[in-house]
Amino acid sequence: MVDMLYTPRSEVDARIAAFQATLDQLHLDGALIIHHTNLFYLSGTSQAAHLFIPRSGKPLLMVRKSFERACRESPLEDIVAVKSLKMIPGILKERGYTAANIGLELDVIPYTTWQFYTKIFNHSTFTDIADSLKRIRTIKSAYEIDLLQRSCTALDEVFAEVPAWLREEMTEIELASLFEAGIRRRGYGGCSKMRAFNQDFFMGHVVSGASGAVPTYFDGPVGGHGLTPANNPHGAGWQVIRRNEVVYIDYTCVINGYTADETRVFVIGDVADHLRRAHVASLAIQAELVNMIKPGVPCEAVYNRSLELAEQAGLADHFMGIGSSRVRFIGHGLGLELDEYPIFANGIQMPLAEGMTFALEPKFVFADGAIGTENTYVLRHNGPQVLTHAVETITRV
Amino acid sequence: MVDMLYTPRSEVDARIAAFQATLDQLHLDGALIIHHTNLFYLSGTSQAAHLFIPRSGKPLLMVRKSFERACRESPLEDIVAVKSLKMIPGILKERGYTAANIGLELDVIPYTTWQFYTKIFNHSTFTDIADSLKRIRTIKSAYEIDLLQRSCTALDEVFAEVPAWLREEMTEIELASLFEAGIRRRGYGGCSKMRAFNQDFFMGHVVSGASGAVPTYFDGPVGGHGLTPANNPHGAGWQVIRRNEVVYIDYTCVINGYTADETRVFVIGDVADHLRRAHVASLAIQAELVNMIKPGVPCEAVYNRSLELAEQAGLADHFMGIGSSRVRFIGHGLGLELDEYPIFANGIQMPLAEGMTFALEPKFVFADGAIGTENTYVLRHNGPQVLTHAVETITRV
């Protein structure tokens, strides 16, 4: 058996220290971390638990289920079992923690769950600390970058298998099912996480020909039919893959928690000239953006430059979607979630910084297909280092 | 191309009528439906939209993205495009709707999202209508039962393929990846929905031998290692499947929105006597429960009877988990979500009613394996009709 990877003590200690500095700035007594993503980030476990992090001193992990697994997975010292969440305020008091002003992740905690906490902590006030944690998580450690690289490499391997699978008259969903099995057996945990409310997302999209222009609610440049209006109405559908139609494959891969994101294009036969030219343009835009990205550059400068380049290529009307389905970003941060900082969009002045990890995805959508590229990067002191390496030209089968 | 299935007008009309009766009882002016599940149930689309349902009169679907798709998918008459959510109160006012007391799904809407609504609706009060909608969704129409039957049949087909895939020394995740590809290519939309906060769930569990006794936070009788503590830490892991170890497979299948749930057990070689006896006991308990379930029977009576039967079989200590990992239910409702009403647990007096759909899952966990059965049912006037039909004896390969 392959052992599971547990987060080292040094990682968790550094993350908690960074967060305690923020708690100090916010004049909070501490924070109660509940949602699985931040809970894993700050404790090393995503079992059902509440992590109290005081402004200074040692955190306390209170586990409802499974205590045994949380003890094995978390490098924290103070771990206790709790039978009922109502016990939490009493436990904190007994241990001498002050908890008058508490940070909570109010961007994901549902209203009625918040109500429950206001009842059990009836002498405390709550402050939203979601954004502070998003900002801390934006800068990845060498350990995290190594994990992200593993997800990227697995995704590259599966892209390399596509030519062996692709055949005329197979449905998009057949190809998607093979691709997904490929990433699952390499360790994809099965849940790709988005922080935004109501943004259902599975693992990725396979869309062929005109499916690439089918709009959807999902906040990405390319939609697709999906299988049903009932859930996940985007990505692969029942459409049959035909000769001389581009097959656009955009997938995530989450191994040991870290999310890779990569897009490649395949075709059985030939690619129409306008699509081929747009693909060349997307690679050229990517190269220009990679060249301009350095620590200190504001996110919006990258987005606005991408619009200029699409305009210069005479493809502005197809860039990042068509008509009302166009999205207004050129890239997004990646990590434990798919929708992290930095966001490369107009109005986002956040300066890029060493250790940020993100995907850039210059794409064009036409009535007969979606085309473009997407890669995952880490920002080094001198510019972006690409972590995804599948062949970028359109693969002809 | 296979056309996607759109919800008929008659279905949506009946659902809205039932909900309007509830709004009337609650003395609400109307409700704003936002979360994808109820939105799909009441409008036929899960595009990004807000559905206002007045206490009486016609509902209004306000679509942010994709308007084009929402118009195609929803049978509702009044559908308008909105560029910004801030426009919603003004649109309602213009159209003459009263919206002083509004129902919202406060069990899933995050706190900061609720804050946003309190700002744009600054003269309205909000009431949680989540439970009312759960109760309405509990009783399925003939149309919904037909869709659920299709999900169940697809799941049966994939279980029938398992003997061809199963081989010694393959990992749990390899088998899981094949199983998942099998349900995906039959139309599994890719998102299995749970309403409960923080309950990550993918599609199902493959656990072999001792993995069946590995605890996890997930609220089910059987856990499993999973691939990583970082996300979805249950289900298939890196464990190798060995001869004479039970392979327990519990999967959902969601086609056109409706969730089937089924568990079967396989083995290469022989099954240890204590596991074989427990499997016979689980089938016997299932038969007894099916026999007692009728419209009018309270949920808890079914659960309490299952405890008696496990006790009589001398297997109480292994029933529905071991030690602190034991769960306190014997079945759960199924539909657009995996955690619907009815809940077969102590203290739940909800009487069963014709048209309810649910899974029963009498299971036993031992140090060397998890065993048992699970099927999906619809309650008819004279008792449960089973919708899942894979072979229930342990399949020897």
Largest sheet of chain A: 6 strands, mixed
As laid out across the biggest beta sheet of chain A, the strand order is 4-3-2-1-5-6
| CATH homologous superfamily classification of the largest domain in chain A | Creatinase/methionine aminopeptidase superfamily
Question: Helicity of chain A, in percent?
Answer: 25-40%
The name of the CATH topology of the largest domain in chain A is Creatine Amidinohydrolase
Total helices of chain A: the number is: 10
Distance between the termini of chain A: 37 Å
Question: How would you sum up this structure, described in words?
Answer:
Chains A, B: Residues 15-139 form the Creatinase N-terminal domain. Chains A, B: Keywords: Aminopeptidase, Hydrolase, Protease. Chains A, B: InterPro entries: Creatin/AminoP/Spt16_N, Creatinase/aminopeptidase-like, Creatinase_N, Pept_M24, Peptidase_M24B. Chains A, B: Residues 147-379 form the Peptidase M24 domain. Two copies of one chain form a homodimer. The first copy, chain A, is α+β, with helices and mostly antiparallel strands and 397 residues long. Chain A has helices spanning 9-25, 36-43, 67-73, 88-94, 111-120, 130-138, 142-165, 172-185, 273-292, 299-312, and strands spanning 30-33, 48-54, 60-65, 79-81, 101-104, 125-128, 204-208, 246-255, 258-267, 331-333, 340-344, 357-360, 363-366, 369-372, 375-380, 383-386, 395-396. In chain A, strand 13 and strand 14 form a beta hairpin. In chain A, helix 1 packs across helix 6. The relative contact order of chain A is 0.12.
